[in-house]
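Review form for a predicted model. The reviewer records the input and the model, then writes brief findings.
Reviewer: anonymous (R2)
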Amino acid sequence: MSPSARPPDQPATSPPSSAALDPAEATHPASELSAGIGSGARESASAKGIARLAVPALVVLAAEPLYVLVDTAVVGHLGRVPLAAVAVGGTVMSLAAWFGNLMAYGTTGRAARRFGAGDRSAAVAEGVQASWLALAMGAVLIVLAQIGAGPLAAALAGDATTADAAAGWLRVASLGAPGLLLAAAGNGWMRGVQDTRRPLLFVLGANVLSAILCPVLVYPAGWGLTGSAVANVVAQTVSGGCFLAALIRETRALRPRPQVILQQLALGRDLLIRGAAFQACFLSATAVASRFGVAAVGAHQIALQLWFFSALALDAVAIAAQSLVGAALGGGDADGARDVARRVTIAGGVAGIGFAVLAAAGAGVVPGWFTPDRSVHEQAAIVWPWFVGLMPFAGVVYALDGVLIGAGDIRYLRNLTLASALLGFLPAIWLAYWLDLGLGGVWAGLGLFVLIRFVTIVWRWRSGGWAVIGATR
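Model under review:
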């Protein structure tokens, strides 16, 4: 039975040869499959090995949000309308970034398994197919933006002037979508082969270039808001071009393979559904918080953005888990994968505790960084114990998310997230509204969402059913 045909919880008896993975593109002989792959993965799962993957991933994850802050500051000096236009246009473009993240996560796990099986060529081949998918999706997004920028901006903007400005910005900024998605695909396969240096250079270099270019185009060049969009396009195109050039240097087998692309789309579908459940939860939380007054929604927004920032940092541990677990399972070492899972789970929990300590220490100070309004501070005091108390659990959940994504156990994650949202969070959040429980009720609902995921994902980890060996799943 081939690896792709076996039942999802039935372990393969040995890792398949590289020829069995992809005969058209495999170049390494089967003799290159090393029995030491698994032990190498265990050595990589030391604190130093996890940090080697997690720290560069954190810089890459943070580069885009930091550039957005620079861009916002530059545009903000043009006036309220341009700033509002970038906010509206950026909200739409964030969907492309979301697709990119899904693509990167899915590609990492698949490439890591191939790499762990001793076949770097097959791992790179995953990047080739992901890059074709990125180019196709990027082209579709450009067309949709040119057609739908006006109606979308009008639906989101508060007035016609802002809508017109946002539509113009979006039409230009959408031209960077292929580069943005190519960079995501490149990040995915490079993480899979545990190459952390080049993604760091490509992404950071492109964003530094754009941060320099943005104020030059906006002010001295006199392009105004359009200059901001052009700077975005330049950064995304340069970054995507660097990843594409690296891919071409790695392999000459560049033709599209529809079967592999369809497998990647199926994986992306499950990640997309899971992501949509998250979005529904956080949008519902904001909607309910807004019904408790301006001060409540302001405090909720502060805590939620800090939560997202913490999640960004904790996600770096999850990315390390994807790469290390995928490599161990691809190398036929289920025990090594379990050891990796244990270590990254401890790392995630420790990181979560660290953030909780920092948040607790800043309880009386941090809300004042965002607003001087004392009523917002009072509402933040209600949220803060929830924020601090949930962080250690979140650290473990994010780490184990990475473990299961690296193991290809995406269907379980999808079902878990949907169940946590539909059976836990959404009923609790609307019950808080009906019973007028205030912001504490909103964050109790978020807490229930996190704790259901914590219990069920820890159970899955302990069961070992996710540790299916082989180069594919």
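Findings: The chain is about 80% helix and 0% strand.
Further findings: The radius of gyration is 23 Å.
Recommendation: see findings above.
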